């Protein structure tokens, strides 16, 4: 019995060692976003709370916590409260299979990539339940947009993942990273890498694809009726999802914890450092895109997903597998 | 012990959620309970060691099919009383299907006694690899046929519902993309006091 309780304690500590850094980096990511946007738009960004304004997001969270949580009288109360919780839970449980280094992972399962794909496809439930339970027109329109958008871009994400899996021959995330020791998949599969980043933007409802929360037409989209901490949970989940999709990009295309070149001063640095640096770079791209591009129109978004990305990724799957087959490069 | 306990837990949840799917008054709640039922069957698949089948079930049914259900059901304006009245009409059909499935289960568990072989087959290799080994070799024709059936169903649904309405204004993306600044804005020099000629 003691060994069981010991294992439980270790497990819980492991979970905390992932969840707490993720939540802290969410706060820092919000700060980074405001700073980057400020820099791009020639402003200063937050600079009052703490040194360089670094405590701004913590102050915002405290403010949200002390506000009153409003329940619309015509809403479906249980689902209304449940939706933000579901969204945050889904964005955190995905971290169970993310390998930060070759040994530092909570659960090293055979089908890690499918688990991640499943969890990220469940993400739409939080949004659609929130939109329906609010019983109000703007949240409902936001939820419908979001459902259609996330399903559309999941298709191309699925094909991109299949291309990588054909090159690896395993569904295990650690195997995927280890097969990139000599060359990152971003180099031979560059078009897939670009499509994956664009689809990740759409999947996390980020600009230029943030139509579910398009403030110019839908007030605030699916969380219009939310206030206080239930709004805070959606906010946390959105940024946690951004970090998750960036980590997935790093694992699939940028060689996870491996340094860019396997030579002495670079490979002496611990792998976790490389992982974090790469995730940071992808996150910066997310913010950079937000500051640069105007929002898509909805029909343009759907056209991009179904008429450009879907045929392109489908053809690329065929090309990759044919190439690997004829040159005898298929993994075992 | 742990496995048996979790099996009964998830199986009980599965049956409870299925009952709620049928008896929920609100169709949206029904679909959400259906999602829970799918989730529990995923857990059951993972418990018997078929993690690939389980997670594919989750991706396809929870991640796509049930979302589309929810999508449609949310937009319907159904009168709940008429819905409950109609349920009785379908009872004979439901009993027929339930009987067929029960007979299949009895046939598989009682008369097919290759259970031990199956068990060693399942444990011998990672089940993702096993499915990959047989799907495109032994079951190639069946796999392609089911793909064609699904494609036909999809095309059929589109053909049945898609009506071209000439009155609707559409975006022509090609012409929008090929537009240049010169097509939209013209720089004119206007003599003072004359204005622009309308032409």
Question: Your description of this structure?
Answer:
The complex is a heterodimer of chains A (332) and B (199). Helices cover 68% and strands 0% of the residues of chain A. With 332 residues, chain A is mainly alpha-helical. In chain A, helix 9 crosses helix 11 (271-292). Chain A is globular, with a radius of gyration of 21 Å. Chain B has 199 residues and is mostly helical. In chain B, 73% of the residues lie in helices and 0% in strands. Chain B has helices spanning 2-23, 27-47, 51-75, 80-86, 91-111, 115-124, 127-135, 140-161, 173-177, 181-184. Chain B starts with a helix and ends in a 15-residue tail after the last helix. The model of chain B has no long low-confidence stretch (mean pLDDT 82).
Brief synopsis:
The complex is a heterodimer of chains A (332) and B (199). Chain A has 332 residues and is mostly helical.
Key traits:
heterodimer; A: mainly alpha; B: 199 residues; mainly alpha; 10 helices; 73% helix; elongated
| SSE run of chain A | HHHHHHHHHHHH
Mean pLDDT across residues of chain A:
86
Helix and strand content put the structural class of chain B at mainly alpha
Helix tally of chain B?
10
The parts of chain A where pLDDT drops under 50 for at least 5 residues are: none
| Biggest sheet descriptor of chain A | none
User: What is the largest interface, and how many residues per chain?
Assistant: A-B, 27 and 22 residues
Count the beta strands of chain B.
0
Shape designation of chain B: elongated
Structural class of chain A comes to mainly alpha
Low-pLDDT segments of chain B: none
Shape of chain A: globular
Main β-sheet of chain B, in a few words?
Answer: none
Radius of gyration of chain A: 21 Å
What fraction, in percent, of the residue positions of chain B are helical? over 70%
Give the terminus-to-terminus CA distance of chain A: 43 Å
């Amino acid at each position: 019995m003691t060994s069981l309780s010991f294992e439980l304690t270790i497990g819980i500590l492991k979970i905390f060692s992932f969840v707490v850094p993720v939540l802290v980096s969410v706060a820092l990511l919000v700060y980074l976003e405001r700073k980057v946007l400020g820099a791009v738009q020639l402003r200063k960004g937050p600079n009052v709370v703490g040194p360089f304004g670094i405590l701004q997001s913590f102050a915002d969270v405290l403010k949200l916590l002390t506000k009153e949580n409003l329940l619309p009288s015509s809403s479906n109360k249980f689902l209304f409260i449940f939706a933000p919780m579901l969204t945050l839970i889904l964005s955190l449980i995905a971290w169970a299979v993310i390998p930060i280094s070759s040994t530092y992972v909570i659960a090293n399962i055979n089908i890690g990539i499918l688990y991640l794909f499943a969890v990220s496809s469940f993400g739409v439930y939080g949004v659609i339940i929130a939109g329906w339970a609010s019983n109000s027109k703007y949240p409902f329109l936001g939820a419908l947009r979001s459902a259609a958008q996330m399903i559309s871009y999941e298709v191309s994400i699925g094909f991109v993942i299949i291309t990588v899996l054909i090159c690896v021959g395993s569904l295990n995330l650690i195997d995927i990273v280890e097969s990139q020791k000599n060359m990152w998949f971003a180099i031979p599969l560059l078009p897939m890498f670009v499509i994956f980043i664009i689809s990740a933007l759409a999947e996390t409802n980020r600009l230029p694809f943030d139509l579910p929360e398009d403030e110019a037409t839908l007030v605030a989209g699916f969380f219009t009726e939310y206030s206080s901490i239930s709004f805070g949970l959606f906010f946390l989940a959105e940024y946690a999802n951004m970090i998750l999709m960036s980590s997935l990009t790093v694992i699939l295309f940028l060689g996870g914890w491996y340094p860019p070149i396997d030579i002495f001063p670079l490979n002496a640095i611990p792998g976790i450092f490389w992982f974090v640096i790469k995730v940071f770079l992808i996150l910066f791209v997310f913010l950079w895109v937000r500051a640069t591009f105007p929002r898509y129109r909805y029909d343009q978004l759907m056209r991009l997903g179904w008429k450009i990305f879907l045929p392109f990724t489908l053809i690329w799957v065929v090309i990759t597998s044919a190439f690997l087959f004829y040159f005898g490069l298929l993994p075992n | 012990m742990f496995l048996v306990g979790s099996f009964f837990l998830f199986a009980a949840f599965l049956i409870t959620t299925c009952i709620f799917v049928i008896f929920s008054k609100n169709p949206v709640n029904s679909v959400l309970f259906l999602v829970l039922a799918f989730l529990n069957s995923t857990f059951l698949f993972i418990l018997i060691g078929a993690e690939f089948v389980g997670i594919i079930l989750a991706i396809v049914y929870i991640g796509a099919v049930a979302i589309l259900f929810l999508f449609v059901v949310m937009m319907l304006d159904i009168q709940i009383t008429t819905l409950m009245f109609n349920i009785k009409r379908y009872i004979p059909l439901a009993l027929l299907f339930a009987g067929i499935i029960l007979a299949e289960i009895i046939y598989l568990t009682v008369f097919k006694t290759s259970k031990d072989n199956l068990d060693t087959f399942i444990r011998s290799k990672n089940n993702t690899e096993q499915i990959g080994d047989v799907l495109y070799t032994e079951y190639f024709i069946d796999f392609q046929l089911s793909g064609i059936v699904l494609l036909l169903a999809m095309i059929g649904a589109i053909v049945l519902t898609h009506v071209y309405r000439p009155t609707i204004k559409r975006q022509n993306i090609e012409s929008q993309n090929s537009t240049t600044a010169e097509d939209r804005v013209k720089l004119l020099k206007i003599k003072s006091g004359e204005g622009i000629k309308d032409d």
